[in-house]
Amino acid sequence: MARLSKNHMNFNEVHLKGTLCLGGAEFPFSSGEPVDALFTEKGVILQGKTRSARFSYFELVEFNITGPGSVTSGGGFVGGGFGVEGAIEGMAIAAILNGLTTKTKIHTFITLITNFGELHLHYDKMEPSVMRVVLASVFQRMRACSPQWHEQRVSVLESAKARGQIDEPQYAELVSRLITAPVWPDPMAEEALRKQEDAERRRIADALAPQGICPNCDTQISIYAETCPRCKAFFGEGSSWSVRPLNA
Fold first, then answer.
1. Which fold has domain 2-135?
2. CB-based burial label for 17 (10 Å; 0-12, 13-18, 19+)
3. Which pairs with CB-CB distance under 8 Å and at least 24 residues apart come from 102-105?
4. Of 77-86, 105-114, 205-214, 238-247, which gets the smallest average pLDDT?
5. Taking the model in full, what pTM does it have?
6. Helix axes 147-162, 168-176, angle to 10 degrees
7. pLDDT of res. 81
8. Domain residues of the chain, as ranges?
């Protein structure tokens, strides 16, 4: 089952429990072995039956999510079809997948290619398109780790500034977004803050205004109050009640 958690760096940590190793090179897992995959802010942690492996996103060269997704139970695999070149008919992988088709309806394949090796995993609890969305933070982090990507994006912004499409303040803001998460406005939160500030200003104004007594509950309130904060009695236009001055 995939578990998500969010940390202070705007990275969605994802834990894929129960992936199945299909094979690979230079990883300590055997074909058919269950492997838990944890995608953290700094890298990937893999845990097999007895051994584990971890690597940084700086070491991750390619990260691919492919597969047919949902398939008819018992359909069987005879080769190809999930983004890996060459037929898999007659290979141990085909036997593993055919064994799974009677137990699951989802086939998602994860390929991790690193500086030192590669690993191919199968996951049966999430469609490929859904997994791509869930692991968006990983792809974002991979881009951030690439100096070529950073230089290319800066070059695009410099070109836009040179053509007058953006000014210097806009350029500085957009460049900062390459290394710092943007802060998006929240109209609802801003409105709530505005109301809170207005209420505080009214409270201070009421405290400084001449005081009176609510005729309904005898609470001391501002002589200019339109409602009593305690009993909600109304003293505005059309009301037969009015705040009694303290010296009345």
1. PH-domain like (2.30.29)
2. middle
3. 102/73, 102/74, 103/73, 104/73, 105/70, 105/71, 105/72, 105/73
4. 77-86
5. 0.66
6. 170
7. 43
8. 2-135, 147-176, 188-245
